[in-house]
Design a protein that fits this description.
Elements (H helix, E strand, L loop, with lengths): L2 H16 L3 H15 L29 H12 L17 H22 L5 H17 L4 H10 L3 H11 L3 H15 L4 E3 L11 H11 E3 H11 L18 E4 L3 E3 L3 H8 L4 H4 L4 H22 L4 E4 L2 E2 L6 E2 L3 E5 L2 E9 L5 H5 L4 H27 L7 E11 L8 H16 L12 E5 H10 L2 H10 L10 H8 L15 H4 L1 H9 L1
Parallel strand pairs: 2-3, 9-10, 10-11
Antiparallel strand pairs: 1-4, 3-4, 5-8, 6-7, 8-9
Length: about 500
């Protein structure tokens, strides 16, 4: 394929986006996203569309994927405008106009991939696709995400830091966020300043929050170009909408084209506000993550005895166990390490800075090593009172999807773990039990769907060649299709304890 063909495709895309009126384009994306949502509003008055386009499922003729909508918004933001020339503008009020510009974007992505891809990077590409799509497929607007995020950032150090960064408490930030979400579920626009007095939100707090999650449209465009300077139209370039999901038009109107990204900003996205603080905050988040996983396990399984980290050994030279110990019939059947380390963006989507990437992924390898070391210390008699089941396992639960569809990364992590183990003479081959690595979303889904026995069997199966690279919940679905009823979310009654606004609204009905 010639470079000329790719350049021609890019030019056609730019020509389309250049004559799109920005506020109309944002409204079009909001309308298409509303069609995609199960209970989305009727948008026919502002966006003409085939009736078959509403409520479609993946694979249907009119199926639209949210990651494509995010790509389209980013492409529009980085395109120089030429509205007014020859009195032309792009049709953003009909399905045909949307479909045409989306097809041009996808054609450009395909040609760009053909031009730049090399066979040896195919596995990296699959991993990048996984990072891009899987989180969207799981969704952001759910109890797990809302509660987990609130718990992670509930510590005193973190709360104090966030108050300085956000200009308000995390509870107020979250409350304002979901007040905004409730508006954007029914309309793409909100007149400024909004009146949320009925909810007990003062104007100053709402103003602080809006200024933190939005930018004037011209500023947003400039920041998007800077953020994506290494590939303005590349599907794997970073998205400015993750940090600023809303845009201000004419100083008087707020628009949010993708509601899920607004939810993300008030839940998981708080991580990037919190992590700008001192190391004490990172440690606090890590400790909260461990407690969250432990509590989830306790609430999910009655036959397991679940306990937290212990210290053992001589005073002054004590060693810590893995974060969570699971026993069944008085035998250790599973050890769990929790790692709250986040992936650098380049590790997910591009050729990363290998030094930076290795430094962070070594934490995951260390988790595997810590599991093996504990099994070795039990075998060697360095601590008493524990029996190990002959089929005992380990799992490292991560806050980010380090190994999603990424065999290369997983093999590297396991290689690093083996290197650490070779330096410890107490660890023998028998101690190197099978250890899975999984993302917290995947782990929660498995807890929701499994019994004690199917839970352990799924983790064991994930380390076999047959299921290498599979998500745990998909392995469970494949092996146990007869289990159809999921457990209810175990922390629903606790949400109000970490987010007082939630409890307040429930009491008000």
């Amino acid at each position: 394929m010639s470079k000329m063909k790719r350049d021609r495709s890019l030019k056609r895309l730019q020509n389309s986006l250049a004559i799109a009126v920005e506020s109309e384009f944002f409204q079009m994306i909001w309308a298409v996203d509303a069609l995609r949502r199960k209970n989305g509003p009727d948008v026919q008055a502002i966006f003409s569309h085939p009736k078959e386009a509403k409520g479609v499922k993946i694979g249907d003729k009119y199926a639209i994927y949210p990651w494509d909508l995010e790509d389209l918004l980013n492409a529009e933001l980085v395109t120089k405008k030429s509205i007014g020339k020859r009195n032309r503008k792009w049709n953003c009020s009909e399905w045909g106009g949307f479909a045409e510009v989306l097809n041009r974007l996808k054609k450009n992505h395909d040609l760009d991939y053909e031009q730049n891809s090399v066979p040896e990077n195919i596995l990296d590409t699959l991993a990048a696709i996984g990072h891009k799509q899987f989180r969207w497929q799981r969704g952001y607007f759910n109890y797990n995400t809302i509660y987990r995020s609130a718990v992670l950032y509930s510590g005193a150090e973190t709360q104090g830091h966030l108050r300085k960064i956000l200009g308000c408490s995390l509870n107020d930030f979250s409350f304002c966020g979901f007040a905004l979400v409730s508006n954007f579920l029914g309309s793409p626009k909100l007149e400024l300043p909004p009146d949320a007095s009925e909810l007990g939100i003062c104007p100053e707090t709402m103003e602080h929050v809006i200024s933190h999650i939005s930018k004037p449209i011209d500023t947003l465009r400039n920041d998007a170009k800077h953020l994506r300077k290494d590939g303005l139209y590349n599907t794997y370039s970073p998205s400015i909408l993750r940090q600023f999901p809303c845009a201000v038009f004419d100083e008087q109107q707020l628009m949010c084209p993708l509601i899920d990204l607004l939810v993300y900003r008030f839940t998981e996205g708080v991580y990037y506000d919190a992590i700008s603080g001192p190391d004490a905050i990172r440690n606090e988040i890590g400790s909260n993550f461990e407690n969250y996983v432990l509590s989830y396990l306790e609430k999910s399984f009655q036959e397991f005895s679940v306990s937290g980290e212990i210290e053992y050994g001589k005073k002054g030279h004590q060693t810590k166990s893995p974060d969570i110990l699971i026993q069944q019939n008085k035998e250790i059947t599973l050890l769990v390490e929790c790692k709250a380390t986040r992936m650098p963006f380049d590790s997910k989507f591009k050729q990363a800075d290998k030094n930076k990437e290795t430094e962070k992924s070594t934490e995951i390898a260390k988790g595997i090593f810590q599991i093996w070391r504990f099994y070795a210390h039990i075998r060697c008699g360095k601590l008493n009172g524990f029996a190990v089941n002959e089929n005992a396992l380990g799992v490292v639960v991560t806050l980010d999807a380090w190994t999603t569809m990424n065999h290369t990364k997983l093999n590297q992590i396991r290689g690093d773990a083996n290197s650490l183990a070779k330096k410890d003479s107490s660890i023998c081959d028998a101690d190197r039990k099978p250890v899975a690595v999984c993302h917290i979303d995947d782990f929660e889904s498995l807890l929701r769907d499994s019994t004690e026995s199917t839970f352990l069997d799924t983790i064991r199966s994930s380390i076999t060649n047959k299921f290498a690279g599979w998500n745990l919940y998909l392995i469970h679905k494949e092996k146990y299709p007869q289990i159809k009823e999921a457990k209810p979310f175990p922390f629903k009654e606790d949400i109000g304890n970490v987010l007082p606004w939630y409890q307040k609204l429930e009491q008000q009905g």
